[in-house]
Specification:
With about 150 residues, this protein is mainly β. It has 2 domains: about 1-55, N-terminal domain of TfIIb (Single Sheet), CATH 2.20.25; about 60-150, Sandwich (Jelly Rolls). Helices cover about 15% and strands about 45% of the residues. Strands 1-2-3-4 form a 4-stranded antiparallel beta sheet, with no helix packed on it. Strands 5-10-7-8 form a 4-stranded antiparallel beta sheet, covered by helices on one side. It has a 3-stranded antiparallel beta sheet with strand order 9-6-11. A hairpin with a 3-residue loop joins strand 2 and strand 3 (about 30-40). The radius of gyration is 19 Å and the shape is elongated.
Length: about 150
């Protein structure tokens, strides 16, 4: 691990220029070179940690035929991702500002459900309960979308 920067920045919590920031260049075996962003605020004590990839891969698309087994699959869902359920006409677009999250396929459906009208929420519940068949398509342009096998 190589330190590449050390300095101050504005804290996203308290807004003061008291965030001590250190950037490290590091190589993750699966992802390749990354920058580790580590910050701690002298004023409010909040901590900020982020991993920023330096090399992006090719676009990744994963399609799930939704059933009780695929709902439990675990994925890393990065920003800059498009998600759709074609049978319902449901879509969710995550911007690059979305920091990414490790979740299940059911968790992705719940994310879509949160921003949907009431009728669509009911249809997504039917999919989760196994009473309706559908596909879930997830596309990520950066190549960071990954299914995690445990």
């Amino acid at each position: 691990m190589e330190k590449v920067y050390e300095g101050k920045a504005y804290c996203p919590v308290c807004g003061k220029n008291t965030l001590n920031v250190t950037l490290y260049r590091y190589h993750l075996p699966a992802e390749g070179p990354v920058i580790l962003f580590v910050g701690r605020c002298e004023n409010c004590g909040s901590r900020v940690v982020d991993v920023i990839p330096l090399e992006l891969g090719k676009e990744v698309e994963i399609t799930y035929d939704l059933d009780e087994n695929t709902l439990r699959k675990i994925i890393f869902l990065p920003g800059d991702t498009e998600i759709e359920i074609p049978e319902l006409g449901a879509e969710l677009v995550l911007t690059p500002a979305f920091k990414g999250r490790i979740t299940t396929v059911e968790g992705v459906l719940r994310m879509i459900q949160e921003s949907s009208p009431e009728e669509l929420k009911k249809e997504i519940d039917e999919i989760i309960e196994g009473r309706r068949k559908a596909k879930l398509i997830i596309r990520n342009k950066s190549g960071l979308l990954k299914e995690i096998n445990i």
